[in-house]
Design a protein that fits this description.
α1 packs antiparallel against α2, α1 crosses α3 and α3 packs antiparallel against α4. The chain has 360 residues and is of the alpha+beta class. The protein has 8 helices and 15 strands. The longest helix is centred in the N-terminal third of the chain and has 44 residues. The chain has a 5-stranded mixed beta sheet with strand order 2-8-7-4-5, with no helix packed on it. The protein has a 5-stranded antiparallel beta sheet with strand order 10-9-11-15-14, with no helix packed on it. Strands 1-3-6 form a 3-stranded antiparallel beta sheet, with no helix packed on it.
Length: 360
Amino acid sequence: MNAPILQKLEKIGQRVVRWRAELIATWSLAVVFGTLCVFGLADFWLRLGRGDRFITWGILVALAVVVLWLVQKALRKRFTPEGVAAMLEEKYPQLDNHLINYLQFSSDKDGDPFKEAYLRRGAPEWQSLDVRKMRNRKAVRRSRYALLATTLILLLPALFIGQAWGVALWRAVNPFTSMDPLSLTRIVEVSPGTVTVPQGDPLVLSCKVEGYRGHEVRVDIDPGDADPTTYSLGRINEESEEGFSHRMAKVSTALRYRFRAGDAPESEWFTVDTRPPAAFTDLKLTVTPPSYTNRRGFSLDPRQEPVMIPVGSAIAATATCNSELKLVSLQAAGTEPVKMASSMESMHWKATTKVATGSS
């Protein structure tokens, strides 16, 4: 067989292999870039946890492995001279099967006079053909357009959110990083935090934020006796720190709340517990009348009976409250108020005083 013809066909076959591998690689990169863009957007908007980022990382690694396998498989493909000739015949019908017949007859050594006469005519004029036309240019253009489009889509968010986009992409491809996601807005402060308030009292929930103008600030309130509700507190109008608040007219049950602002990470859930209004659960007055009355000492509960105490009587008072109090005082007629002493977490109080004037 004609060695120069075989070498030429071998080179053409190698070019076809490279073209096919390039086409596979281009489409594959477009898919990888598109997938990476989706994962970056997911991390930017949803703040993916480490477990979710391990899933995105695993998908990207699997895609990379598949791409490498497909490209390697395409590059390992080898065409026989007859196979290359068949592709040339398909692309250039004017060869009229002469090239493939020449190759097949050259490989036969049966001494057939017809085949020998055919071979003496020589190989058809095919080496001047432009083999670049064998390339599927339409498929190449489509793959390059797809790669260009996904590359632009991948880079476009950086024009609007800057460094935060790079951080989101890095977090999507590297679940081992401890880098926190960046945001255009951040919640600076939340008030009153976790707190206990008297049942039935009003309460103001407030926060301070700074960030991107137009971002909405909201508060989620999850009461124990109703469905959760979200209230819009307005939009950011200032570049500097700005405050937002929500007033609850009455807190009747325990609840939890959190603030959300634009793309900032949500605040933690804060708890509001309630306690009954301050009241005495036990109140006792021990009275020691003066000697001139010839009366014995006695005790009474001023909540249950009228308080009639002789002038000059000594009074020892004890009180128990249903919650902690800061100050409790005892005042008898004609005397200054006496601060009661507390014990047991400011729920038990006691004091002594004396009735100076009056009859009760």
